[in-house]
Write a structure and sequence with these properties.
With 225 residues, this protein is mainly alpha-helical. It has a domain of 111 residues. Helix content is 70%, strand content 0%. It is elongated and about 80 Å long.
């Protein structure tokens, strides 16, 4: 009975980690694709760390960790299982630490984002205009606080009407920063649930890995440390 449960646990780990590996590969591929759509000009301080970089790093981490878990469970390799356990534990600590820092320093981070966006807005270039047009059309907003952030060079993407009436323009009233905050507040519960689910999956992964590790150690099976 116990052997049957352990085999079920082993193959469950293999299947779950294989699915995670596929997801990680997809995220990595999407990150490579996003390299063609760089939006560094919105926030100058994050010029070296944009969305594509975040996707690339996430994809690499997911693929590497899931591959270790899959191979460790399949080969009943104690070394790989222990490495998988430690990496999951470190990842969970990093996620919880980042979440705590964001919650504690929410106001300070908000002010920093606002200042950095203003710096990006004040730099004139074609790339900046295209990036802001994309953001303003997607979020249905204008500027950071309102259209006055653009001073005398308000883009057409700020207009309510399309095409824009340059003689008597009507601009979108809500700024993009306020719109982004409203979107995050609306999706706060969903984001929180997603983080909790990820942590639960990581804890289950650690429990499964340690259970297999202990079984292999007691039975003398698999690769010995």
């Amino acid at each position: 009975m116990a052997q049957g449960c352990l085999k079920c646990l082993k193959y469950t780990m293999c299947v779950v980690n294989f699915l995670c590996f596929i997801c990680g590969t997809a995220v990595l591929g999407f990150g490579i694709y996003m390299l063609n759509f760089r939006m560094d000009s919105l926030m100058p301080s994050l010029a070296q760390f944009n969305m594509s970089s975040a996707l690339l790093i996430s994809g690499i981490i997911i693929t590497c960790v899931s591959f270790l878990g899959f191979l460790g469970a399949l080969k009943e390799n104690r070394c790989l299982l222990l490495t998988f356990f430690l990496l999951l534990f470190i990842l969970m600590l990093v996620e919880l630490t980042a979440a705590c820092i964001l919650l504690v320093n929410e106001d300070m981070i908000g002010k920093w984002v606002e200042k950095d966006l203003l710096n990006g807005l004040n730099r004139n270039s074609t790339a900046i205009s295209k990036d802001w047009d994309l953001v303003q059309n997607t979020l249905d907003c204008c500027g950071i606080h309102n259209y006055t952030d653009w001073k005398n060079e308000v883009p057409d993407s700020c207009c309510v009407t399309d095409p824009c009436d340059h003689h008597n323009p009507e601009y979108k009233k809500m700024g993009c920063l306020e719109k982004a905050k409203a979107w995050f507040e609306e999706n706060f519960l969903t984001t929180g649930i997603s983080v909790i689910v990820i942590c639960i999956i990581e804890v289950l992964g650690m429990c499964f890995a340690m259970t297999l590790f202990c079984h292999i150690s007691r039975s003398g099976l698999g690769y010995k440390l």
